Sequence to fold (217 residues):
Amino acid sequence: MPQYFPPRANALLKWLLIGGGVFLVLMVTGMVFVARTVNNQVGVPVAQPVNFQHSLHAGELGLDCRYCHVTVETAPSAGIPPVETCMGCHSQIRVDSPALAAVQASWDNDVPIQWNRVHNLPDYAYFDHSAHVNNGIGCSSCHGEVDRMDGIWKTEPMTMGWCLECHRAPENEVRPLSEVFNMSYVKPSNQQELGHALVAEFQIDTDKLPQCSVCHR
Fold:
């Protein structure tokens, strides 16, 4: 049988396999590094086209989260307010302020403001805001004291391990429904007792929560 490949072809194949394996390891390591660092930076303000101050609106003025994030109780997404929501006030208040030029331009030209994402979960992770707020998980548990933020940034890493801490022991985090939107809520000294009672009241399936299919569908 004739020899179609020279002897050095074996060595070439060997190094291709080794190189491919090294490349695969480096690629997976790089993806994990990016997922756990660049995509999960905590405490780093995210620049926005409009310098919206939660500390002013939700803090000083006391606006409820649901005034802007209208679907937080009924849909997976909390929703980003359309410019109509902004202009409900700013057609009368601080009308000529340079800080609101982008809002006015959006309104005049009927072009939505392109806000930059702060929390960007991967597509393979399913998250439902309504399922959380309707079962006693407060906004500040994930987003921090937003009413004290001049800008906006992540206060928690949102990694799978971080989510599982709550899914494995929801009694440590649940609060009364009346306190879900209270940014200053502090866990009571009897959190464990209260938490177990609320888990039973909300009929939270503690056996199902840690299962993969809850978040990966």
User: Anything to note?
Assistant: The mean pLDDT is 90. The CA atoms of residues 12 and 18 lie 10 Å apart. DSSP finds nine helices and no strands in the chain.
